Amino acid sequence: QSSQSLWNRLSVLLNLLPSAADLQESGLALGNEVKDMLSDSELPDPSTNLLLPEDVALRNLPPLKTAHKRFNFEQDRPIFSTVEEMFPFQPVLCFVCYCQLMCFLLIDLEVCFCGQAAEEARRNRLMRDMAQLRLQLEVSQLEGSLQQPKAQSAMSPYLVPDTQALCQHLAVVKQLAASGRFIIIIPRTVIDGLDFLKKENAGARDSIRYLEAEFKKGNRYIRCQKDVGKSFERHKLKRQDLDAWNLYKILDSCKQLTVSQASGEDDTTGMVTIITGFQLEDPSAFSVPMQSALQAAAGASVEIKNVLEFYKQWKEMG
């Protein structure tokens, strides 16, 4: 049952093979043994059984035990030409019930189709590689268009604002996005945070309207990043310390971004910076889970900077 496609192809092949009558009328010079075999090959129980090299090679194969009972493996095999040796296959294959020759053919077909499958897999790999190269070229062209002066080349090309940065300093984020020098990445968790705050926070509502407009326009300098998956969920922490949970989720998105952009053993340090609305001068003022999240970011080579401090640094380098 697991080889359904193989049986389908085999049935097509069998229907293309000539009948015994076609072979007898082919005009080819055939030996008496082959002629006798052709004469009764389409009978329900053929009396002529020619011993083929495949029979000898597969003599002890268990699935062919019943079929091989009709052969006398001690008899001398007649000497056939290459054409004659293939003839016993032709008419008999019209009968699917003749399991011996079916097995011979299946072995050859499986080798053939395995080769086809390998070629198809190679083509699929080639298409995937080409798609990846196109993506890398697009990213390279995009990054090349970021117009960064040499003094600013040390700043991360990818900025990931958190919910606080958007709610409190949307105007600054807008300037960073409009500069053409950074790619602003908006993780799904940030959008969820804005949605959670929109009823009571005017900054959240303004940010949602701004992001919706930019996504609709297809602004290549500001992009929405899909959720990276449930494997990064921390439900207990979400209940205990929502700020720490959100930072972990943003950090997960940053890791996903650096993995997708890196090739081989490329160093991704400094590629991504999280810009936050929190003041970071005194990390000890944060909760223990929040301090752990900040340490995790440092361990992942992801910078976290206050959005106003980052903006000031950028302007000073301008």
Automatic annotation (TrEMBL):
GO terms for biological process: nuclear-transcribed mRNA catabolic process, nonsense-mediated decay. GO terms for molecular function: telomerase RNA binding; telomeric DNA binding. GO terms for cellular component: cytoplasm; telomerase holoenzyme complex. Pfam families: PIN_4. Its main location: cytoplasm. Residues 116-143 form a coiled coil. It comes from the Eukaryota. The keyword Transport does not apply. It is found in: Cytoplasm; Nucleus. Keywords: Coiled coil, Cytoplasm, Nonsense-mediated mRNA decay, Nucleus, Signal. SMART domains: PINc (SM00670). Residues 1-23 form the signal peptide. Residues 157-280 form the PIN domain. Gene3D superfamilies: 5'-nuclease (3.40.50.1010). Transmembrane segments: none annotated. This is Nonsense-mediated mRNA decay factor SMG5. The lineage of its organism: Eukaryota, Metazoa, Chordata, Craniata, Vertebrata. The gene is Smg5_1.
